[in-house]
Design a protein that fits this description.
This protein is an alpha/beta fold. The chain has 9 helices and 6 strands; from the N terminus they run E-H-H-H-H-H-E-H-E-H-E-H-E-E-H.
Length: about 230
Amino acid sequence: MSVVSGTPFPALVFDFDGTLIDSAADITLALNETLGAYGRAPVSERQVRGWVGDGAGTLLRDAFAATGAPIDEAALPAALKRYTDIYFALPADPSCLYPGVAETLAALAAAGVRLGLATNKPERVTRKVLEMIGLAPLFGAVAGGDTLPVRKPDAGPLLHVMAALGAERAAMVGDGVNDVLSARAAGIPVVLVSFGYPRGDVHALGADAVIDRFAELPAALERLAT
């Protein structure tokens, strides 16, 4: 029996960037300020959209490689701290939410579905953005890219969130290949949104379902269960 009509899973674990929010503009702003401090040229938001998803460290490596010599790994921690501090200081506005996200998540939570977040974004930035856009009360567990020794595509973040939610059964909702691989490793189904940062054809990533509008999520989950 479904927990709520159209939602047969007792818990859902969501990706953040590209799934719930369009954060590319803020990431680009923080990244370019960091690059500027190292004498590098700015990068475009289009470039950033192709890099998002593997964590802040990989994002910085990509940006430095695109603007000159690769960053020295010994210098990466300082650059990462600068980037994270800049991003943390930025305001976040609910307008970054994709259409239908706030309403769908609120309805799921009100129906008793446990919601968690597993993202490769730094945890303190993630939690601050959640607070500022009004979603924090809906999520019972959050795993950022630096919460555990591993991050997506490892199963660890999903399993960590599921355990924190007290859920043995769940589904993953994301936008890219790391979400698919992490869900597969955790042994749970995965739904991808088509409007995020997939780095290619989202339909070719091996998800159990792909949705074009966030409000389609409950129906997609119902189809997966049957």
